[in-house]
Amino acid sequence: MFELLDGPPYANGEAHTGHAINKILKDFIVKSKIGLGYRVRFRPGWDCHGLPIELKIGKQKETPAPQSFKEIRSAARIVADEAIGKQMNAFRRWGVTADWDKPYTTKSSKYVAAQLDIFGQLVEQKLVYRTFKPVYWSPSSNTALAESELEYNEKHQSTSVYFRFKLINVSSPEIIWSSIPPSKPSQFYALVWTTTPWTLPLNNAICVSPNIKYSVIQFEREINNPTSTYYIIASNLVSELEKQSEQKCRILGTVKSENLIGKKYKSCWHNELALPIYEAPHVSDTVGTGLVHTSFAHGFQDYDVAVSNGERIQSFVDSRGCYTRHLGHDLDGKHVLGDGQREALSSQQWFIDVEEIGKRASSMLDEITVSAGDSDLRGSLKQLVTTRNSWCISRQRVWGTPIPGLVDENGEAYTSRELIEWVADLTRKSGNTDVWWEVDLNKILENEDVRRSLKIPKDVIPQLKKNVDIMDVWLDSGLAWHAAKENEMEREHVTDVVLEGVDQFRGWFQSLLLTSVAVKNKLPYRKIIVHGFCIDEKNNKMSKSVGNVVDPILLTDGSLKQKAIGADGLRFWVALSGSENAGESKIGPKIIEDVDRKIVSLRNGFRFMIGGCQGFNGNPINSPLKTLDQDMLHSVDSFVKKTISNYEEFKFRTVANDLTQFIQRNFSSNYVKYVRDRLYCDKIGSESHLSAQFTLHRTAYSLAHIISPLLPHLSAEVLHHLPGSHEKQILRHTFMELQSEEKYYMPELSQLMKVVHELRTVLEASAGPKIDTSKKDIIVYVKPEQEKLLKTSELELPELLNVSGVELNESRDGISVEITDSKRRYCERCRKHTRKDGDNLCSRCFDALVV
Ligand SMILES: [Zn+2]
């Protein structure tokens, strides 16, 4: 049994080239595993909950925007179902094999209930908590966001500012001056640098590091001021300040960090307030000033500083992203950011403590392989999971799986495994995923077990409300190792492979890993394979606004401008450019043309095989095979063997390239060119003719089977049209059954063919491009041992060398060839110089025509 767990695509919008890379690569694995003899389980999934769908239904114009949770959730369900239908059609159109009748969707009651079961176990292990903490916040959609939901725009120039805070109790004697201390009255400032200037009114502290050297500087333009103004900045960052400010600075001395730690400075907003300078481990002198502006509620490290110094954390920005009245009249109600931006704000949220789990998971990762082609990416996943400490799992929306819990007026939360399982059971039995929203609070508390498990103090009971936050979608799909499986037997089997885009190191690979290690102390998969993304021929990302998005339907089905390359064309493109790497897969007209050319050459190869087999019954033949045919079948065997091992290693690009080469070189150049004469001119039914037909038949049959994971439609077409083929369906036999028996080959075959290939090269070189050697005789000189080999197939030498006649001679000097005019006459039928004087045709052609 082999299982591939489908990382569910988001149930929104049409299928795109990104889906094509992902689903087709998965199909290569599924089909090749079937061919390798495994029973395979691959259940397709869809990730249905989340913000994009919920925002979309708010914007639909035709109908009034849904208001109640019920309306929103049922509208969202419709959006998801429509997308699932469209995407599923596309995936099937691409020839993807999957359990299409039993897909899993994260919105189904079965999935939600199974997800809640596991969530209950996380709660029981005390890994889930609710607290006031900074999280990434989306003011426009009014909800917390996961780190992986943030889209970083690299081109966006963030507004950064230098800002000075007036130091209160730092004075001249604490400075190590490089020359005579100044005599003028002096004022010292701490210089900070921030990319979030809107948090300056919310400043709570400045952090410095004992490992950094700090300088005392003066701006040249301020030297003649009546009061000397000095700035403190990390020594390494003075030149950067000069560059950014376009001001010359003078370094006048240094100050030790211990003389800064514990000092106070004036708040820039509340003039009467003195704020502290703390020491913190995250401060560095690679960017900024080495003095870090700290706002406890608005940064993750800032939060840690507050906790370690016993500071109180308050947020003066509300959930809409506006300053609150605590900051005074000037800022009250003003929006801190433009719309659509996301920043770290503090609010009450649910978290999973993943610090210890991440470390445990990281050490377990040694057991698995994480790869893209030949590169090992395990280290990057290990690093990502060890640096994470909390996972914010709550969202203030309604289209999702609920977080069952009760909350009192002070924000204290009460939940338990019993409560969660009770909701899971209700969901499972009713088939209704809205139950949490619908159920009456009293009904929950009426259940004795549930009520007892929640341990609610009596006096808060009247204030209780149901928690209406929903779960982060990464928790939905992250529990697929449990919830996407049908029963305990399926769950016993650890998924063999997961395959997703390289971005899932931050997403799904992690959420599967952390939850599985937390609950089962077991890895959720044995192997991770990653792929890259699609870009255009000029290396641009696909984007609707640039207009370079390639619609996979236009590729498969064509348009007025573009030739249809069919599902197999799309698949071949994925094999050639989407597999064996985590880099980008290019797509564009030139690349499509190249794919098309390759597919056409494959089709032509197969067409020749099928054409040559007309009238052949497909059965094994009793007479010995001609040397040329033995050679052909022998290379088919090696190709099959090599391809099997490439499938085992998931090397689909190698298979695609090998196949193209095989058809062009081994088949067309080394076989068709030589066998054509026998196939066209020998008597039908003769041993020599049957030998060629048998060879073509076997070649077509073996190739059609072995390439079926990549090109299933071409494969099925070949099997369908191949005369005398009893097997018309792909993947009915394992690839191992395709290899021929040794009895077909004479022992000296490969040595003999080595000499033949050498002779072909020499012959080609001496003939040049103008002479058609098929109409010539040749005199061959070879070493005695080579002559001995050639003698074993002497009668076949004209065919093996594609000439009219061969005279074999021994020579100590090695291989050489003389081209001569034939002494025999030209035969009109076979166009060779094989006719005896006086005859109408050569003897072979005469035989072929006698009825
Ligand atoms: Zn002839």
TrEMBL record:
Query: Which ranges carry the Methionyl/Valyl/Leucyl/Isoleucyl-tRNA synthetase anticodon-binding domain?
Result: 629-764
Q: Where is the Aminoacyl-tRNA synthetase class Ia domain?
A: 2-578
Q: Which GO terms describe its molecular function?
A: aminoacyl-tRNA deacylase activity; ATP binding; isoleucine-tRNA ligase activity; tRNA binding
| CDD domains hit by this protein | Anticodon_Ia_Ile_BEm
GO annotation, cellular component aspect: mitochondrion
Per UniProt, the keywords (alphabetical) are:
Aminoacyl-tRNA synthetase, ATP-binding, Ligase, Nucleotide-binding, Protein biosynthesis
What GO biological process terms does the UniProt entry carry, in alphabetical order?
Answer: isoleucyl-tRNA aminoacylation; mitochondrial translation
> Origin, by domain of life?
Eukaryota
Task: Return the Pfam families for the record.
Answer: Anticodon_1, tRNA-synt_1
Q: What is its EC number?
A: 6.1.1.5
Family to which the UniProt record says this protein belongs: Belongs to the class-I aminoacyl-tRNA synthetase family.
**UniProt-recorded name of the protein:** isoleucine--tRNA ligase
Q: Which organism is it from?
A: Caenorhabditis tropicalis
